[in-house]
Amino acid sequence: MAALNIKKGSTSHSAYDLRDSHSDVERSHTLAVIVENEPGVLARVIGLFSGRGYNIDSLTVAEIDHKGHRSRITIVTRGTEAVIEQIKAQLGRIVPVHEVHDLTVEGAAVERELALFKVAATGEKRVESLRLADIFRANVVDSTLESFVFEITGTSEKIDAFAELMRPLGLVDVARTGVAALARGV
């Protein structure tokens, strides 16, 4: 079995170069909302934004369990910290929300790394590894009937957490770039 390697100088599109945040400054936020699937959920979420004059730059929906009971709605919006807190509170009032996460990373610069994970899994372990990859926003870059190779970009803590969760599911090999300031949009 060939070892996983990352070419020197590899970068990923999901690394960020962020400016200092101030509570009264309007900036882009990415919210991940885990909701119960029921009729009208998406319409109510969109209605909250349009009815209150909040901006939606983009919105995506993905099922996060194989039985279709829950979905993740990812919303990119703009606002001050206070406005984002209002949005998060109001979401919980209009739809059956399990969790709301602000995926926007604070700080002047974010040190991130790229990692490849090879997971040999079949059956339920295969389904669970795909579910975790979706939650962690890992991309499947290679797949066979017995294994996957996932690519993930993030902080060292995020990659460590992903590795810990993948170990019991059949983690075979890991390759990491090490912490670096990765360029955005490459």
Q: Helicity range of the residues?
A: 25-40%
The termini sit apart by: 30 Å
Total of helices: 4
Structural class: alpha+beta
- Count of distinct strands: 8
> Order of strands side by side in the largest beta sheet?
2-3-1-4
Q: Quote the average pLDDT.
A: 75
Oligomeric form of this entry?
Answer: single chain
Global geometry = globular
**Compute the gyration radius: what is it?**
18 Å
Largest sheet: 4 strands, antiparallel
List unreliable stretches of 5+ residues: 8-22, 180-186
In the CATH classification, which architecture of the largest domain applies? 2-Layer Sandwich
Number of domains: 2
The secondary-structure element order is EHEEHEEHEEHE
CATH superfamily of the largest domain: ACT domain
Instruction: Look up the CATH topology of the largest domain.
Output: Alpha-Beta Plaits
Top CATH class of the largest domain: Alpha Beta
Fraction of residues in β-strands: 25-35%
Walk me through this protein's architecture.
The protein is of the alpha+beta class and 186 residues long. It has 2 domains: 27-102, ACT domain (Alpha-Beta Plaits, 2-Layer Sandwich); 109-183, Alpha-Beta Plaits (2-Layer Sandwich), CATH 3.30.70. Helix content is 27%, strand content 32%. The protein is built from 4 helices and 8 strands. It has helices at 41-52, 81-94, 123-135, 156-166, and strands at 27-36, 58-63, 70-79, 97-102, 113-120, 139-143, 147-154, 171-176. The protein has a 4-stranded antiparallel sheet with strand order 2-3-1-4, with helices on one face. The chain has a 4-stranded antiparallel sheet with strand order 6-7-5-8. Helix 1 (41-52) runs antiparallel to helix 2. It is globular and about 50 Å long. The model is unreliable at 8-22 and 180-186 (pLDDT under 50). Catalyzes the conversion of 2 pyruvate molecules into acetolactate in the first common step of the biosynthetic pathway of the branched-amino acids such as leucine, isoleucine, and valine. Pathway: Amino-acid biosynthesis; L-valine biosynthesis; L-valine from pyruvate: step 1/4; Amino-acid biosynthesis; L-isoleucine biosynthesis; L-isoleucine from 2-oxobutanoate: step 1/4. It holds the Pfam family ACT_AHAS_ss. Dimer of large and small chains. Belongs to the acetolactate synthase small subunit family.
